[in-house]
Write a structure and sequence with these properties.
It comes from Uliginosibacterium silvisoli. The protein has about 220 residues and is an alpha+beta fold. Helix content is about 15%, strand content about 35%. A 6-stranded antiparallel sheet has the order 1-11-7-13-5-4, with helices on one face. Strands 8, 9, 10 and 12 form a 4-stranded antiparallel sheet that branches. Strands 6-14-15 form a 3-stranded antiparallel sheet, with no helix packed on it. The structure holds fe (ii) ion (FE2).
Length: about 220
């Protein structure tokens, strides 16, 4: 796992204008560009590089995520499916972290891109060493606007937490599969794996495709 983009500084990260309609066309443009990028690139390294650049652009502006897909849950973090490619080559998910919420230690089994849209995240990587699950590097703070990668090639096991104990954080994840249906693992601290399939928190998706309104 590696961070491929630092958080943009100052004026390049934007908040939504209060009460403005979500600029959902940003997400539509992103998924169209992402599919075109996958048509042009097949190696994982290229996908992470070029896909990371697209995600960096998407999370640089916080004015497009509809409120329904930004709602935290008091019990545990939420994962809202925003889009799946029709060939399930990739999926886009908003992870919404309530104050202090955290994932278990888990893997993905496919490439993934993580971009912070709101707030910040703390990530701790792990790896197996002679059968033992050990921390791989230090806890890393992923600031708003930053993008990092995971995959079985670059490092696939981590635990992610909301960096804040008093507010919601939101990250946008892109995976090389319909991630909610992928069989993967959570790990006990001693490395014992347990199979899980995450599913999604939502049963309805945002409508990216209504072009009847000017500008959308
Ligand atoms: Fe993860």
């Amino acid at each position: 796992m590696s961070q491929i983009a630092e958080a943009p500084v100052g004026a390049s990260v934007h908040d939504a204008t209060p009460d403005a309609a979500p600029r959902i066309e940003r997400l539509r443009d992103f998924v169209v560009s992402f599919a075109e990028m996958l048509d042009a690139h097949s190696s994982e390294a290229d996908v992470l590089k070029h896909g990371g650049a697209l995600l960096s652009k998407l999370v640089a502006v916080d004015d497009w995520l509809p409120e329904d897909f930004a709602q935290p849950d008091p019990e545990r973090y939420r994962q809202y499916l925003l889009h799946t490619d029709s060939r399930e080559r990739f999926s886009v998910v908003s992870f919404v972290w309530g104050p202090g919420q955290s994932t278990p230690i888990h893997n993905h089994t496919v490439w993934g891109l993580i971009g912070v849209l709101r707030g910040a995240e703390d990530g701790q990587r792990f790896r197996f060493d002679q059968g033992n699950l050990i921390e791989d590097g230090h806890l890393e703070r992923l600031e708003r606007g930053a993008v990092e990668t995971v995959s079985p090639t670059v490092g696939d096991i981590h635990r992610v937490s909301n960096a804040f104990s008093d507010r919601t954080s939101i990250s946008i994840h892109v995976y090389g599969a319909n991630i909610g249906g992928v069989s993967r693992s959570v790990f006990a601290p001693d490395g014992t794996p347990k199979t899980f399939i995450s599913g999604y928190s939502n049963s309805r998706l945002p409508n990216l495709w209504d072009r009847s309104i000017a500008g959308r």
